[in-house]
Amino acid sequence: MTKESFEYARRCLVCVMGLSPQVVTETLYCLVTEQNFVPTEVILLTTLNGKNRALRDLLDPQDGKFAAFCRDYNLQGKIAFSEESIHVIKDADGLPLTDIRTPQDNINAADMIASVVGTLCSDDSTTLHVSIAGGRKTMGFFLGYALSIFGRQQDRMSHVLVSEPYENNKDFFYPTQTPREIYHADGSPLDASKAKVSLAEIPFIKLRAGLSPELLSGACRYSYAVERAQKELAPGLSLLLDIGSRTAVCAGQSVKLPPVLFSVYLWLAQRTLQGKDAARPGENVCADEMLRVYREVVGRGSADYDNACAALKREEDFLPYFQEKRSLINRVLKAQLGGYKSENYKIKSQGKRLNLSYSLSLKPDEIQILAKNKFKKS
């Protein structure tokens, strides 16, 4: 964990688990002793059988190993973990799954995991430490991939490593501070305090910066998140400008623009279709061209159009006017499409400071303009 992670008010340890609840206390041990990082809560993603095992082995009021760990390391009351912290995978009818056995069970697990991670990552006050050590292999994969889609800079992922012969020992939950006798499968005694447990941090690609705010707003199904991420990060380039609705449709994603911004964008798109060079707003012909497009969009008699004509009487007025509109257009595109996707649709500049020109980076065959009087098929 980075130093910045310590400053978040909500610090979540998120684990997938099958029938080995040890992954929770083993990971907690490493976070607390190796990284001096104390989660404020534990969130467990599992099946109904996994939940029952966690209630018995971790949260039992008398013998629960979570409470024992907190006592051993003076963490009583500092980490929230209860039955309400356990998310159980459900089937299509909303009934809890006892195990993951079928392809549909796998889909249900993926959807639940993506929903929980997406929701947690939509809260800017949180940082996540995700452990993929427990549960079936597909559960760990889904959790790691969900974090790759939704995760922020402050989020981390790891796998816990346990030394032999303590690994997979049903009686071992964490290295105790004082000697504690447990037993090997062959019946020989072991001292739990002698075990070596460490975290292997797993770097992951953070795709969030390239995704739209809509996808990142909270809970969603895993398949939907993957499909949308694929389309947003590697879409085919296409731009449809619908004059009637003043909407730019960028690879299927609609971006509504105010009339003047839409008109500036439409003007540059028309220049691309006409095979013209990049526009140089310092030339008066550019102002005339843009105003003609503006009039086409809003119609004669528009007060906004009249105001634009009055503002652009002098040739030197158009450059600052255009640069302001360009900045606003690019800002809207980034907000609606995400940083990565919007780069293909922004108005780009080229040349040096006193000789700048502007254009879209799209090719003519990637642009389509839908006129006002052209009816769409329903």
Write up this protein.
- The protein is of the alpha/beta class.
- It has two domains: 3-231, Hypothetical protein VC1899 like domain (Restriction endonuclease-like) (Rossmann fold, 3-Layer(aba) Sandwich); 235-370, no CATH class.
- It has helices spanning 22-34, 48-57, 65-72, 103-121, 137-150, 222-233, 259-273, 284-298, 303-311, 318-337, 339-342, and strands at 10-16, 41-46, 86-88, 126-131, 156-162, 181-183, 189-191, 197-201, 239-242, 247-250, 253-256, 347-350, 357-360, 367-370.
- The strands form four sheets. It has a six-stranded mixed β-sheet, with helices on both faces. It has a four-stranded mixed β-sheet with strand order 11-10-9-14, with helices on one face. A two-stranded antiparallel sheet has the order 6-7.
- The longest helix has 20 residues, at 318-337.
